[in-house]
Design brief:
Length: about 300
């Protein structure tokens, strides 16, 4: 007879998956809504139950052992199938019901989430949306998410990706007061001599290198400047105040450019890239609540096109 699995076993499995996906106890604890110390205890208990070390820990880093990596690769699809099976029971209800966990880039939320919250709640009163707004590229399965909205270039290949909008561009822009004082860069490489507002992906230590297009290929410029942020709206406000040059989505600043509040530059080198997509793990059977949410967002996106 197979060994029965208890509720605590599932908690330990989920704890291990979260840490293995993030390679960080603090970020995994935030995802699960527990303290890092409690999470550490669950992972240690799990290691004791399987009888092998799964994670190598130091004061600065977390890494999977060979055994941990092998187990993680097998658990991810297994847990996904289990979750789909449990949520699939909801298909026998007359109306979709249950919890849909959504991870979204902040920029996408303003376009595709906030405008549909009221209509979705009215159409599906038995569905609860649990939305996390975060510009990090979170692991969907290990993080406990059902679906994400993010730009195309950071979607894993094994995910189903549904395009929501057109391609996007990032454009360097600054306030007229900054341009009057420091002038315009002639080429992207001239940015190293300018005061730039840098951006850091949440959860990463280094700053983002600005990407430009030339002769059929992308190249990066490691800019410098007086401000580093992990929120694009903060970077935009700082640019409007004349702090420096920011690198921003063209759709976000179009009206500000028309009003003369921002000046764009280096647009010849700003090429389009895949825009916002809905993405979710491949699954044999999708929970009705998740299907309702995906269809609702897609219908809204089609009206925007």
């Amino acid at each position: 007879m197979d060994t029965p699995i208890t509720g605590s076993d599932f908690a330990q499995l989920r704890a291990f998956l979260a840490v293995a996906g993030c390679l960080s106890f603090s970020r995994a604890a935030d995802q699960l809504g527990v303290s890092p110390s409690a999470l550490s205890q669950m992972v240690r208990a799990f290691e004791q139950s399987v009888g092998v070390r799964l994670l190598n820990r130091t004061t600065r880093s977390v890494a999977l052992t060979d055994a941990g990596d092998a187990l993680y690769r097998r658990l991810v699809p297994a847990m996904s199938d289990l979750g789909a099976a449990l949520e699939g029971v909801g298909q026998y209800r007359d109306q979709p019901a249950g919890l849909v966990r959504v991870h979204s880039f902040r920029s996408a939320a303003a376009l595709y989430l906030e405008p549909v919250l009221a209509s979705f709640a009215s159409a599906y009163p038995d569905v609860t949306l649990d939305i996390t707004l975060d510009d990090s590229v979170a692991e969907l399965v290990s993080g406990g998410y059902d679906v994400a909205i993010r730009i195309g270039e950071v979607i894993e290949r094994d995910m189903v990706a549904v395009r929501l909008g057109s391609d996007m561009r990032q454009v360097a822009a600054a306030a007229p007061s900054y341009v009057e004082r420091f002038g315009l860069p002639a080429t992207p490489r001239d940015l190293v001599a300018h005061r730039c507002i840098r951006w850091r992906w949440p959860g990463r230590s280094g700053t983002y290198h600005w990407e430009f297009w030339e002769k059929g290929a992308w190249f990066e410029v490691a800019v410098d400047g007086p401000l580093i942020v992990n929120d694009k709206e903060t970077a935009l406000r700082a640019a409007l105040d004349g702090v420096g040059i920011a690198f921003l989505s063209d759709w976000r600043i179009a009206s500000l450019v028309e009003q003369g509040l921002l000046v764009t530059m280096l647009e010849t080198w700003s090429a389009p890239f895949p825009g916002h997509h809905l993405c979710y793990p491949r699954q044999r059977q999708m929970a009705p609540a998740l299907r309702a949410f995906i269809d609702h967002v897609r219908e809204h996106a089609a009206r925007l096109a």
